[in-house]
Write a structure and sequence with these properties.
Two copies of one chain form a homodimer. The first copy, chain A, has 16 helices and 17 strands. Chain A has 416 residues and is of the alpha/beta class.
Amino acid sequence: MLAEIITIGDEILIGQIVDTNSAWMAKQLNLIGIKVKQITSVSDDVDHIIEALDEARKRAQIILITGGLGPTKDDITKITLARYFKMGFRRDEETLKHVEGIFERFKRPMLEVNRKQADVPDGCTVIKNKNGTAPCMWFEDHGDIFVSMPGVPFEMMYLMEDEILPRLKKSFKLPVIYHKTILTANIGESFLAQEIEEIEDSLPAAIKLAYLPRLGQVRLRLSASGENESALKHEVDHYADLIIQKVKPFVVIDEDVPLEKALLDLMEAKKLTLSTAESCTGGYIAHLITQHPGCSKVYEGGAVTYSYELKESVLGVQKTTLNDFGAVSEQTVKEMAEGAVKHFKTDYAVAVSGIAGPDGGTPDKPVGTVWIAVASKNGAEAKVFNFGNKRAQNIERSAIAALNMLFTRVKAESSK
Amino acid sequence: MLAEIITIGDEILIGQIVDTNSAWMAKQLNLIGIKVKQITSVSDDVDHIIEALDEARKRAQIILITGGLGPTKDDITKITLARYFKMGFRRDEETLKHVEGIFERFKRPMLEVNRKQADVPDGCTVIKNKNGTAPCMWFEDHGDIFVSMPGVPFEMMYLMEDEILPRLKKSFKLPVIYHKTILTANIGESFLAQEIEEIEDSLPAAIKLAYLPRLGQVRLRLSASGENESALKHEVDHYADLIIQKVKPFVVIDEDVPLEKALLDLMEAKKLTLSTAESCTGGYIAHLITQHPGCSKVYEGGAVTYSYELKESVLGVQKTTLNDFGAVSEQTVKEMAEGAVKHFKTDYAVAVSGIAGPDGGTPDKPVGTVWIAVASKNGAEAKVFNFGNKRAQNIERSAIAALNMLFTRVKAESSK
């Protein structure tokens, strides 16, 4: 079963917002056996939207549409869908009551534009949007299903989870899709490909292997779709095991989880605790870790020490170290990590200090120079990296390198 | 002049990665007067890619393609483009030398698949990719321009900035596009629309107004395109001023910057310093702030205090406060903010403590309960919020609410 996602709104096309909805939706659809054939972002333009709807239904039977449902004049999805399906409008009383309830709850007077949110094309099924004023609309037309949802991520997410996915499961007999992902680190894509070439060549036609590289990591994903879940799983897992055996030193984990989640799981299993001491990554490592529910079993907290003063007062870095070697140095970053272990009373700590840029570089420490240290009761180890001169990329790559170093160290020390 | 962006790769369609490239590219294209008509994500499938190329060139004259250029077997962009333009392959010597140089630098043996990265369709112009092994390829066909770039964000970004954008500027006489964005907070989209209805109705046809809502904020964007930059600017700025005067209490800033950047600019202008004390937001506020170059003029650092112990030892929260009221309470969050001001020696601090979920809720403090405090030398103020039961959304909304509270407080106190 194929689906397409159409996002409506100039804000994506002028680059004001990143479309995070589509990736989330695609992931959920995949889990229930619906493949996304194409994702299309179009402007707030009636003809363009209609063209996209026509093209999408040639390729797929399920068309999920987000955006363009707000109360203001630039939101034209509803009008466009009514025209496309040749429907008139009716006021949906239940939606009206719901919208009135929301305005009452927030003690705000209700405007005519808000009442109009309850007007819907008269041939669609209205699905209540508990978290907002724009209702979700479900259309069926010549065997195709079109669903229009608001573009606000959390409104869309609730609707998908509570309403749309269950209805799609009921509407179609869906195949099983089985993915198995292996996260590797410290090996390049082409070397990995060379190592597992024989296994790759021996894969049955029904199993697809994809390489998903990302800053210091490559994910290998085996996928198959069919009818019989346990047979699929059995076959895919067999090839996954062959790959894991072949490139074992580089395998972080055989699950589709981010590196920091693999780290948390490993540390939780070994009952180890962690703290962070960040300078140039500015809290990003802490953020990556604390995205994950249950992280508090491992993660105690950390410091973002941008200034010299905080490096001294919070982490106990020596003033002489900072003066003699600078904030971006092996000595400082080791003291930061050791200080975190000591002051935050954790088994491990990771520290990062670098020049994120675009300014602040010197000839011997150019922008992108980043020192990373990992400390445990066995002492601190540090490495220097150079990640180039883009700030966002420096922060991202420093965080991944830090997590990688930490993972490697914890794995080595805890398997002794 | 219209462009389309096509991203190639199953990883976007199965939701494994979010397409951040397209938004960035769209923004850059807009700045030089090229409008993006559509963004399309397609799978690693020759026929599907060819269909997307055919559809895109019906609507636009510039087609920018990312992804599918890696050395492994699932990367088929190059083969597809050669077939589409009916070209053979040639080995590009300069690319080969460059790839060999990279492998030498990293002291890695070179494989045949890496050498193949230098094979290109024989009718394209090769553009050197300084940051990777996959070359960028520029095709011209019946007046249309097709550019194929790697999907790795920083490789694509360098290529766009250094090579593609300058070449596009040379290739076309581009119109000027002028945007003016007004960031508002603490007012809903429909109330904003009602407030400025008369101004909106009086806008000339050439000026478009868009409402871009996002968690507690609405951006108003006025756009116009034409030939004469100063005339466009003059007219758009005139209407922007009318809007700003009409909704002044809700205007954060009349620039297209994120809330935290507006805050940093305000605090820098007033020579004020800032620290953070985060529990449930886990470093996300620090990360938002430290994304911005020059933030160190304002931001000294902060603490991520997940555990009770760190709330006490780093921020000086009283043990009795934690025991009597709990970590998620007005008393604790105020002490966190006051502690940050005191221990980190800053003019302002913001503190957040809440139950991000999915676990940890109680009947009187359900998941989503978040206390936020702002402290300065004039004392601490706190507010409670409830953001629902999704962890990622709680973190995001808590951060925005905290920045909003901080901005409002700093603005009020610094204008006295």
